[in-house]
Specification:
The chain is α+β, with helices and mostly antiparallel strands and 66 residues long. The protein has one domain. Helix content is 21%, strand content 32%. A 4-stranded antiparallel β-sheet has the order 1-2-3-4.
Length: 66
């Protein structure tokens, strides 16, 4: 799956303190994930519906953010 044209974004919960963060990018029917500190490194790509199910499960089971 080609993700070179992905529109990448980082979570608003990620600060600029150099922490371990990921970026999520969308391109066509795919959602890609990469390390924000290694933008040219490996990337994982998921079908959009699989990513949506994953994110929904995280939101349902994670404690509320302050």
């Amino acid at each position: 799956m080609d993700v070179t044209a992905a529109a990448w974004r980082k979570s608003s919960y990620s600060g600029d303190n150099g922490g371990a963060c990921i970026e999520v990018g969308t391109t066509g029917p795919a959602v890609a994930v990469r390390d924000s500190q290694d933008q040219n490194g490996p990337q994982l790509a998921f079908a959009a519906n699989a990513w949506q199910a994953f994110a929904s499960q995280l939101k349902a089971t994670s404690p509320a953010q302050p």
